[in-house]
Specification:
By secondary structure, the protein is an alpha+beta fold. The protein has 20 helices and eleven strands.
Length: 531
């Protein structure tokens, strides 16, 4: 990818690498912006004659993609309102696949702004525009979003990701930083390893040795606990050691489906063996995240696969009663010692999540555009990254330094918990920047460097957009296949069926139309490359 560039005055002010575009490793906090941000005068940023805040005291409705009730109004929301002049009334969320979302569309009573994964819309984003649910943003970006427009002009790699094959812009994107693209992987009790004179496991064989020791010498009832989403689809899990992943990906320019590959059969055979030996949680097929947390923090389990913040959460929970406890990241397992696994966890810079589309029925398209465009201004970027000057950071020699509210919180909150209230570190339509947020436990900051050591980048399928007809056909095929492969995977691991039958299952996937699905994905991939 090319480096993300602001114009020269903004570059001098920010001095940040907007890592979503593939910039170099993160800089220290003291290399961040050198000019004030967040005061009243600075917040009136000129852009083609327009200045914030927007007059008129408008209120817009905003629906998140996270299920649940109406979100709590946070200090960052208050600050956004003050700076933009636009009040946002947040509504309870509904993900694209939720029935609630379908009912909302059918009702015709749409929010002004939808935050969702529009790549998953039936028929694709173009279909959502054609059906009159969301606006095509091309002309509106030219008129009302100069900051997003400049960002896309300066970064054609990002521009390529966030539009459809026919050039339609349908949403303001959440673009992950280079480091933010990796945020999950294996987590292990490092103190148990030290106690047993074992090293961090790097291969499948070493993982087998470690988990066996956890069971026999630490009396861990479930040495490895995890949810099914981490088996090999959401991350490479342990499947990456076998050169496969349970999803669509690219091998040498050709789209493949991991479940069809011989390596997946080998992987399932190994997992079935581990399950028979009592190394994998006997309840893994049905447990939820809270149960995994409980097992990891009570000594029932010594390893899992999860997100980075789990490390901080587990250490905080356990070390109060057991100061020697030490949860840390372990590398994704490889086939051979010293080798790299083919897969781990890696998102595209634009994965389609947290994309803000504007309702076709809104009465205030300009206000919605202006509010969303603020995140792509110099000051919006500062707010989303560092929070509010004087509260979460101060400027020393023109450089932001976190306050004690963040680094020594009087209520014992972690720095990430504080910043969740005062900034948007993730899952918000913006270009994510590395905030160099201090972590309470070194293992938390070490994890990303450990988990990113894979060959996943060479296999990553970009955010392709099948045509409406292709998307409908793809959905019809994959709904059946997805259910089939999940059931088959579990039956084999749980010992309800023999691995010897896997070739028969591959044929059943072919009978269900996986070949046609691969043709559709390949065509969409080639169109993406030609955008």
């Amino acid at each position: 990818m090319t480096s993300l560039r602001w114009n020269k005055p903004l570059a001098a002010l920010l001095g940040l690498a907007l890592l979503a575009a593939g910039c170099s490793s993160p800089r220290n906090l003291d290399s961040a912006p050198s000019s004030p941000a967040g005061n009243t005068s600075a917040s009136r940023e000129a852009a083609g004659g327009f200045t914030y805040p927007v007059p008129g005291g408008l209120e817009l409705t905003y629906m998140n993609e996270q299920p649940g009730g109406t979100p709590e109004r946070l200090p960052v929301d208050e600050e956004y309102e003050k700076r933009t002049g636009i009040s946002i009334r947040q509504l309870g969320g509904a993900p694209m696949t939720d029935q609630k979302f379908s009912l909302l569309l059918a009702s015709g009573e749409l929010p002004d702004i939808f935050l969702n994964t529009w790549l998953q819309y039936p028929g694709g984003p173009d279909q959502a525009v054609e059906q009159g649910y969301i606006l095509k943003l091309n002309d509106l970006i030219d008129q009302y979003a100069p900051n997003l427009k400049r960002t896309l002009q300066e970064n054609p790699d990002i521009d390529k990701m966030i539009k459809t094959d026919d050039g339609t812009y349908y949403a303001f994107p959440f673009i992950r930083s280079e480091i933010g693209r990796v945020y999950g992987g294996p987590i292990i009790r490092r103190d148990w390893l030290d106690e047993l004179n074992l090293s961090l496991p790097e291969t499948i064989e070493e993982w087998h040795t470690v988990l066996t020791a956890f069971k026999e010498k630490k009396q861990a009832a479930s040495p490895l606990t995890l949810r099914t989403m981490f088996l090999g689809e959401r991350t490479g899990g342990f499947a990456g050691a076998f050169g496969v992943m349970g999803n669509f990906y690219v091998n040498d320019g050709k789209v493949v489906y991991g479940y069809l590959e011989p390596g997946y059969k080998e992987y399932l055979n190994t997992m079935s063996q581990w399950y028979r030996e009592g190394l994998i949680d006997k309840d893994f097929a049905s447990i939820d995240a809270a149960t995994v947390d409980k097992k990891m923090t009570s000594g029932v389990s010594g390893a899992t696969i999860g997100w980075q913040y789990y490390i901080e959460k587990y250490n905080s929970a356990v070390q109060a009663g057991d100061p020697e406890a030490d949860f840390a990241a372990a590398p994704y397992p490889s086939a051979v010692k010293g080798g790299l696994p083919e897969f781990g966890q890696l998102d595209n810079a634009y994965a389609g999540t947290s994309s803000a589309a504007i309702s076709a029925t809104t009465r205030h398209p300009e206000a919605a555009m202006r509010w969303l465009d603020y995140a792509f201004t110099r000051e919006g970027s500062m707010l989303n990254t560092y929070g509010i000057e004087g509260i979460t950071y101060t400027l020393e020699d023109g450089k932001p330094v976190y306050t004690d509210l963040v680094v020594k919180n009087p209520d014992g909150l972690g720095s990430d918990q504080v910043m969740t209230q005062y900034s948007h570190g993730t899952n918000f339509p913006m270009i994510q920047q590395d905030n160099n947020l201090p972590a309470k436990y070194p293992a938390t900051t070490e994890s990303i460097g450990i988990w990113k050591q894979t060959n996943h980048e060479s296999h990553l399928l970009p955010p392709v957009t099948p045509t409406a007809e292709e998307a409908d056909e793809m959905s019809s095929i994959m709904n059946d296949i997805h259910t089939f492969v999940k059931e088959t995977e579990l039956k084999i691991i749980l010992g309800m069926d023999s691995i010897d039958h896997y070739d028969k299952y591959v044929q059943q996937m072919k009978d269900l139309g996986i070949g046609r699905a691969l043709e559709i994905q390949q065509a969409a991939y080639e169109r993406y490359l030609n955008r």
